[in-house]
């Protein structure tokens, strides 16, 4: 079975929005082992949409339409497919009730158009929309499968995940259960990771392995098919064990929407530690990233941004001697910043960031040259040097994530190369 | 003339990358008045690509191919089009020289495949690639126009902008100069802005007006066609004047990659002011946003993150009386934070952020309830209340941008509604 994705909407053809739906569905289909050979975008135009349907019918088995299920006169996907297939539209009672309730709650009068959202193709399976009004449609006809999904990603994703996927799985295989696990890595590039897992990737059948390069990190998605959830999990467990053995130190967490800051927050709370920071080139970005996670107040009370020499000295208390002798882009300055921050903010861990963000050099150091200082109650302080060599804001972002990863590694007793320990 | 965009690449069909090129080109074409009725994505497969070419030829005049110009055996756009149109491939001397130089500099041996990047369709206009190796092709044949562009956006965009656009403009009209200006707005929603400009948008011919909803802001792109750059600028000036008259207070700057922080930095430097911040719910995000702009050290030396009550009191010096009496989500606390930060960091302006980021409420205040405090040398301090009602990180982001906009408005003497002035 192969699929074709057809997104309907003039706003896509004007470049006003990105076709993120097509990428999402393509990824999901690939994971299920369904080939997708074409993605098409066509405007809100009956004639052209019909032409696209004709082409799709000739070359694909599954036709997934995105968008055009709404109440306005521009929304004509259902109407066009109904005419094309000669299958009438009928009102779905469940969806209609939802529409009525929605307008009653808003205390607004319904127009004739609003009913459109409750219409589906006759004899189809109605796909429930838990986050919006327009019902989806799943219709099998003469060896073809027609799936109609709403355009907003917040409606399309749950509908695909909860309604379409189980139907498609039941259709395509006897192994009707599919389980995915997302492994998140930091500190290793996609190509290095892929080369370390090369034989596993080459041999993959079940589970499948897919690597994705994300924003300064890499995710690996393991997907198993089976007859029960338990058997799928067992297959994934065993593959993950092998991956852990090879690149385990870079694996920081699990899940599609997880982030390094969240894992570090958890570790700090579990170990009942309080963290603070003194930030120069990152300018508050480390603390902001930490504070992006809810519940962070249990391990974070505050910190300081010391952008200038004066603030480093006068407010934080770094000695002018250190700055004069070693400069601010130095292990000594980084260590002193971390220690002084820990004193000032009464924390168990202090971390600091000092270096050249770019575009200019600082103290003769090229952009991307960064020292991260680390101070922890009862342990010798140290600093670690990094060379990022990207643009200003990527250097800053990379420094923040490297700081989080450094904390993770210290708390989990993982290796730290290239450390400079203070002599104090 | 109407165009069709055909992106070639299996990674798109696997959902590994987003088709940002199609959105970019669609936007550019729309601006030039060229209709784009279809976008297609097809894999690295000769047979299927040829089929797509056949469909495109039947329904469109301009065929823009993206990707598949590289050196690997998967790259087959040129080869397929060459066979389809029966136009041979020839080596372009300029492009070949670039390839040779590239490998010589790398001290790496060239393989036969590397030559592929210098090949173009015979009798076509060669499109120079200033940021990569693969040459582009612009071929007119029997009333059709075939344009071949490289896949990486960093190569595609300059090639389209500098090479394709002038050719297309010369093709489609006698007014061969086109000038765009991007106006950036904060604090006004896209629909409100559109309704205020409704008559202008409805009447638009030259210049055209397009509004885009961005990340917490709205941009308006004005595009004029004419015979000279000067006449285009004059047309845009006159339209912008009308827009300024209607919604000028929300217009904060110009340009595709500009941001509010940059404009605020400029204003601060022009007026020789130093800023500092005390951040609670934003957790350093305001200072980080400011520090994302290079050259910020001229107006920013540092600031503090006061996430907990204790740090607000012990390090920043907010009186426990204020916190006990009014709570931290209050005008009084916000004003005191801004004033104390100004003292501690010796700045002319102090700004503060305190409120409930979410997901939980704080002191009975719903997520998104935020006070921003403002203190400036020689002026009465004040605080302003905001209600954002989005999720945690959108509330935080929104607070940061609202803080920047507040500074902008103060420095430009623009209206500030809803101000609470301290009695001190």
What do these coordinates show?
The structure is a homodimer of 424-residue chains. By secondary structure, chain A is of the alpha/beta class. Chain A has three domains: 2-172, MoaB/Mog-like domain (Molybdenum Cofactor Biosythetic Enzyme, Chain A, 3-Layer(aba) Sandwich), CATH 3.40.980; 177-254, Alpha-Beta Plaits (2-Layer Sandwich), CATH 3.30.70; 260-421, CinA-like (Maf protein), CATH 3.90.950. Chain A is built from 15 helices and 18 strands. The first copy, chain A, has helices at 10-13, 20-32, 46-59, 77-85, 93-106, 153-172, 190-196, 198-203, 229-247, 260-270, 285-291, 309-316, 320-326, 331-344, 392-411, and strands at 2-8, 35-42, 62-66, 89-91, 119-121, 125-127, 136-141, 144-149, 177-185, 208-213, 218-226, 251-254, 275-279, 302-306, 349-355, 369-376, 382-387, 419-421. In chain A, the strands form four sheets. A six-stranded mixed sheet of chain A has the order 2-1-3-8-7-6, sandwiched between helices. Chain A has a six-stranded mixed sheet with strand order 14-13-15-16-17-18, with helices on both faces. A four-stranded antiparallel sheet of chain A has the order 10-11-9-12, covered by helices on one side. In chain A, strand 10 (208-213) and strand 11 (218-226) form a beta hairpin. In chain A, helix 3 crosses helix 4 (77-85) and helix 10 (260-270) runs parallel beside helix 15 (392-411). Chain A is elongated. At the A-B interface, helix 2, strand 2, helix 3, helix 11 and strand 14 of A face helix 2, strand 2, helix 3, helix 11 and strand 14 of B. Strand 14 (302-306) of chain A pairs antiparallel with strand 14 (302-306) of chain B, so a sheet runs across the interface. Chains A, B: It comes from Pisciglobus halotolerans.
